[in-house]
Design goal:
The protein is mainly alpha-helical. Helix content is 36%, strand content 4%. Strand 1 and strand 2 form a beta hairpin.
Length: 302
Amino acid sequence: MTILIKQPEFVGTEAGERKVYEEEKVLVLDAGLVVPHTTSFGQTFRLTFCLYNDFKTGIMMQKSVEIFYQINHIKQTYDFVQRMRNEYSKLNRVEMSIWECCELLNEVVDESDPDLDEPEIVHLLQTAEAIRKDYPNEDWLHLTGLIHDLGKVLLLPSFGELPQWAVVGDTFPVGCAFDQSNVHHKYFTENPDYYNPAYNTKYGVYSEGCGLENVMMSWGHDDHMYLVAMENKSTLPSAALFIIRYHSFYALNKEDVESPKWLHLFSKYDLYSKSKVRVDVEKVKPYYLSLIKKYFPLKLRW
């Protein structure tokens, strides 16, 4: 499947260049996207999924995450995703601003993420500020860092109070065979679609070359926020919308997509900017309000 995304340009670096500068400890990817080895908060981009200070606590958390994915993989069927998309694409739950939605996330904790024991708003600001410090000229990317997880409001009563398995965690295509690269793949054998001949072949309900944008992903906060941005006529660039829609699709084969470079860069900040260092909300709020005004209407339908 091929997705063409117009990439914002980086001045002074030729497209296609790929170098490692040992003295600066940075990686320059295609199109000149520089990925530092540490964030601006001094946090290392870890190569492991998560490091735990306490071994026993770590084992318990890993087991809890595995149980989450077991339920997620059993219940995320093609029919379920269709129902959720039809229901939530109406955007008739709440009318509010982007910042008001950010504040709602003070009530949300993602149980699928063992790295995150803080309210979601903390993670959003850490992600956005880390990107902002390393890429000061890409304001659309700063805002994408702030809003990428806003779909997690689906966990709240005013949005239907969906269970965690229907909101968070890694996403994956439905309506076709479940790929082996999906985390905890073994639990898909308990999903009804696994044995349904309409859904369990390589292409399933799709045709070869149909394009990733035409493939339904497991339902969750990614797709919900993408629908909100699209239906409310956000002026964010296509690369931002791609990040919002697929940032939890970690099994994505980057060779199948024309330009996932911004997603690759973004994922490092999304996964590895989490720390106990708190961002001063009132200090950064005016800046993000200005970006919201630039790329979104004052009030949005959710």
